[in-house]
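name: query_chain
kind: protein
chains: 1
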Amino acid sequence: MTHIAAPETAELLDIARRIAREAGEQVIKSRVDAKISATKSSAVDIVTQNDLAAERHLRERIAQLRPDDGILGEEEDDVIGTSGVTWVLDPIDGTVNYLYGLPHYGVSVAAVAGTPTPALWKPIAGAVYDGSGVMWSAGAGMGATRDDAPLVRTVGPDLAGTLLATGFQYVPERRVRQGEIVTRMLAEVRDIRRMGAASIDLCLVAAGQLDAYYEHGLHAWDFAAGALIATEAGLRVSGIDGGPATERLLIVAAEDRWVALRDALVQAGADKTWDS
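structure:
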């Protein structure tokens, strides 16, 4: 595992915040002109020209500021670096919200050390610049912030009092199964929210505006920055087996409530795997 000293962590955090803000301001300004330019996993999994432009900007800035680093991005090919640091980019998380003018979207930028896959990497720095102009960020061992205000979240309500967030994939067959889990969980919690941007949901749990969150089938760029922000705020972010959160399933809750939520999700069938 690549060792990242504190001064470099601070540098990576500064870069993450700077370029997320640059791309985020560009994305917000150009939203009125957003148009679907492509689809991916299904006809409803869309990309706008602004997703592509934002990722190009992020990649160009990383090439200028950290030319030896790797890049793992949603819209373009991976770049293999030599420094041991990889940037994980989601140029617009919540593209459907963005297209419809809903502010629940953001630019997500994270720097990770080591093998660039969630089960193996070490998150170092992350920033999410959301559609309302709020900067969420965290550095490993440095805590998490919303703009300049510290985020600290160490306790949560019991399961019956939990406002739980989740999300759905774009493949219809998987959505049906995810809906079945939601149906079972509705009887266990205060209520459920589905807002459409994993990175923002993770930040809102860190801020206490949601109590917990889970989702199947996220991509690495969906949660790399948000998971670090939630972790640095004091929350537990793990997979259903208690190990690292991965693309299979991510669960975030206060440490004292995580096991109860996981167990309820298992009872609801969230531990099952399925093919698309």
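note: The two ends are 33 Å apart (CA to CA).
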